[in-house]
Amino acid sequence: MSAVLEVRDLQVAVGGLPIVRGVDLTLAAGQRLGLVGESGSGKTLTALAIMGLHRDPIRVVGGQVLLVGTDLLRLRRRQLDKIRGAEIAMVYQDVAASLNPLITIGHQIVEAIRLHEPVPRAVALDRAADLLGEVGLANPRDRLSAYPHELSGGQRQRVMIAMALSAQPKALLCDEPTTALDVTTQARVIGLIDRICAQRGLSAILITHDLAVAGGFCDDIAVMYAGQIVEQAATKQLFATPLHPYSEALLSATVDLDTDLDRPVPAIPGYPPLPEEVDEHCSFRTRCVKAQNECRQVITLRRIGDSDVRCVLATGIPNGTDGVVR
Ligand SMILES: Nc1ncnc2c1ncn2[C@@H]1O[C@H](COP(=O)(O)OP(=O)(O)OP(=O)(O)O)[C@@H](O)[C@H]1O
């Protein structure tokens, strides 16, 4: 499968401190990739850098973001504005900050459509209504004249998805698209993104701190810790045999809504290092129950079976010595 998006050795710094430290990601046509990690691991900065939406004090200090072969990091702003939205579009975490409260949603979607294609307003309005129908809003034509505050949180997120689709992108970058929503609405919005990706043949990156959400949607998952990918594997593989101790800890802290509601969810003890505390050695060693002296070295991603893992202790034989995959 050809790659829609290739991120190579992406490095992002904030005020001179390295935050995203050499991230590689490849998104194939039609693939759904999860980028998962705790708050502060650098997921949003990775997304903003991919979209070229980062602003001072955030700086991309190295790497490439290849969208169908073109390096977005080398483009001038005007060229980037053309590609952004048309080739790759982002669905944001903070819907309230992304929709203008003073403008009707119809007008906002029409503007998004006409930014990329100079169609007459009436044509754009028809398309806007179609898009609202596609994202599951009832009476889409009537909803065009609604203001954002007249919609529920879930409906506003659907409008954001409609806007992201307005220029018919090849890839969607969804940054915690359901974090602000209740559990039932979360499931509906993820279901909607799932259906739209399948119907339109879209590739997608889903950014989330919730491994269970990624597990239900993604073909593959990249686990991020302190600005680095520490494990990348097919979703089934990662859930069955997490090889990095951080992936294992994240999995143990994941709630299965069908069976685990009465079980206390264990939190991962300790905190990720602050950006100024990060060194070139394993960043998870201070919280890792398996940490050894040899964790104090530069550790690269290496292939074990079908997974890529950044841990010197990983052997591919999980949880003990019997070799049974649990
Ligand atoms: N505008 C900013 N100014 C200063 N520091 C920032 C800024 N944005 C991000 N950071 C730093 O970068 C780190 C990574 O932030 P980022 O938002 O990428 O994390 P995340 O993994 O997406 O977490 P979350 O899920 O909470 O958004 C933060 O912990 C913070 O230290």
From TrEMBL:
Cellular component terms (Gene Ontology): plasma membrane
- Write out the annotated subcellular location: Cell membrane
Is RNA-binding one of the keywords UniProt gives this record?
no
Q: Which residues form the ABC transporter domain?
A: 5-251
Superkingdom of the source species: Bacteria
Q: Which UniProt keywords apply?
A: ATP-binding, Cell membrane, Membrane, Nucleotide-binding, Transport
Has UniProt tagged this entry with the keyword Iron?
no
Any single GO molecular-function term of the entry would be:
ATP binding
Gene Ontology BP terms: peptide transport
- Spell out the Pfam families in the cross-references: ABC_tran, oligo_HPY
Q: Can you tell me which residues the record assigns to a coiled coil?
A: none
Recorded topology in the membrane: Peripheral membrane protein
InterPro entries, alphabetized: AAA+_ATPase (IPR003593), ABC_Ni/Peptide_Import (IPR050388), ABC_transporter-like_ATP-bd (IPR003439), ABC_transporter-like_CS (IPR017871), Oligopep_ABC_C (IPR013563), P-loop_NTPase (IPR027417)
Concerning its family, UniProt says: Belongs to the ABC transporter superfamily.
The protein in question is named Peptide/nickel transport system ATP-binding protein
